[in-house]
Amino acid sequence: xxxxxxxxxxxxxxxxxxxxxxxxxxxxxxxxxxxxxxxxxxxxxxxxxxxxxxxxxxxxxxxxxxxxxxxxxxxxxxxxxxxxxxxxxxxxxxxxxxxxxxxxxxxxxxxxxxxxxxxxxxxxxxxxxxxxxxxxxxxxxxxxxxxxxxxxxxxxx
Length: 157
Description:
By secondary structure, the chain is α+β, with helices and mostly antiparallel strands. The protein has helices at about 80-90, 110-155, and strands at about 10-15, 20-30, 35-40, 50, 55, 60. Helix 1 runs antiparallel to helix 2.
């Protein structure tokens, strides 16, 4: 087990798939007194964490980082589209891009903040779509020239 700068205040023994594990628990002081917030210490990197996960490769308990776990939102391919859709949903608007927004039905500051976030998100999407269209046009132009040159070579024979 790595050395830690935290004083262990408790040790918990658990059995995971028939193998005994020892978990160290430390407490963070609270601003206004009290026992403090309990945290597990990761057995691999000694980070303070609230949750430990079972690593599949060696069946040990570890934090998210050591267990190489990711959140589903980190694996999304079109994160910007999902972000704009979620903001539109909060505003009560249609989830279609660039659809008109409904009249304000919430606090003005919140509405303005969400509209600003939506404008930024849809601007990023528009820029990505523009880049995509330009790549497709270049590809089509390249293919058209290649086909034209190959047809000239065939007719010259």
